[in-house]
Amino acid sequence: MRRRRKGSKIIGLLILLGGICAGLLAEPALQDSLWAGEETGAQISDVQSMENSGGELAGGQMEVHFIDVGQGDAVLIKSADASMLVDAGDDSKGTAIQNYLQKQGIERLNYLVLTHPDSDHIGGAPVIIEKFEIDQVFLSDFEKDNSTYRKLVQALDNKGLVGSTPSVGQVFSLGDAQVTILGPCDTYSDPNNASLALLVQNGEDSFLFTGDAEEEGELAMLERGLSLKADVYKAGHHGSKTSSSEAFLDAVQPEFAVISCGEGNSYGHPSAQTLNSFRSRGIQVFRTDEQGSIVAVSDGENITWNCAPSDTWQAGEPFGE
């Protein structure tokens, strides 16, 4: 049974080091709540130390950086002296991700996980592959015949790397943490449901990543009987209504959800349906479109954040084609 967090009040009167959330908290209401010490259920830590904490982490500590790449995904996970990047935004974000990783003291990635071949997940990967030493690359088994995918394949060839598709149930270590592959559980005709899904466990704390898996892919994980419970859920498909189905959320039971999407994106992410599902369950939401890069630190028992959860519950508005 998943434990509740201890000591959930925000520490009042935080010392302003370089600006709360590095100036990324665009919503005044959120910034006010930090100073007022209102209850949010999330513990807030010093943003400077969390966003510039290069080098090896203390034993049992894990950092999860949800990097703001606009409309796309990129997540850096650090544990002990190991690191993993999950997705790499689109082709305009490769250098920005490179800079972010270098500020974190990253010289080598133990794992590069590209959940599926959509451009907003793999576009920046060639830069990362070129600039960093990488031990292992995990790819979805879904391939695309387009220039973005061909650039990825060429970058891997140039570095002598061969990507592989891990099996469901496969487990590997990342520093002091453990990573379990949860999907995809079937073969699909679309790239979203073919997304790699993984659960990262650090002590009692767990983080779930499902790429852009939609309800069909979520249902397959449920039918497989996999343990999906997680404290933090990186919202599937950027908060789209096609993901985060009711049955899936019932199984995951997250305390926190992080939505990675671009401000004013044309897709309408995140959807009102998804936000309503989160809100009705009391799930606290963080959003890169409102708050920029978001950092969670797990010590194996508690999770602290570099900013307060969003309180806008503002849905996106789709437009264009």
Query: What spatial order of strands do you see in the largest sheet?
Result: 1-15-14-2-3-4-5-6
Number of helices: 10
Oligomer: single chain
Please tell me what the overall shape is: globular
Give me the Rg, rounded: 18 Å
Q: In sequence order, what are the helices and strands, one letter per element? A: HEHEEEHEHHEHEEEEHEHEHEHEE
Question: Largest sheet, described in full?
Answer: 8 strands, mixed
Fraction in beta strands: 15-25%
List low-pLDDT spans: 1-39
Mean pLDDT, rounded to whole units?
88
Helix content: 10-25%
Distance between the termini: 44 Å
Structural class: alpha/beta
Number of strands: 15
How would you sum up this structure, described in words?
With 321 residues, the protein is α/β, with parallel strands linked by helices. The protein has ten helices and 15 strands. Strands 1-15-14-2-3-4-5-6 form an eight-stranded mixed sheet. β4 (82-86), α3 (94-103) and β5 form a beta-alpha-beta unit. α5 (125-131) packs parallel to α6. Residues 1-39 have low confidence and may be disordered.
Characteristics of this structure?
321 residues; alpha/beta; globular; disordered N terminus
Quick overview of this protein structure:
The chain is of the alpha/beta class. The chain has helices spanning 28-36, 47-51, 94-103, 119-122, 125-131, 147-158, 215-223, 246-252, 272-280, 288-291; strands spanning 43-44, 62-66, 75-79, 82-86, 108-114, 133-139, 171-174, 177-183, 197-202, 205-209, 232-234, 256-259, 284-287, 294-298, 303-305. It is globular and about 50 Å long.
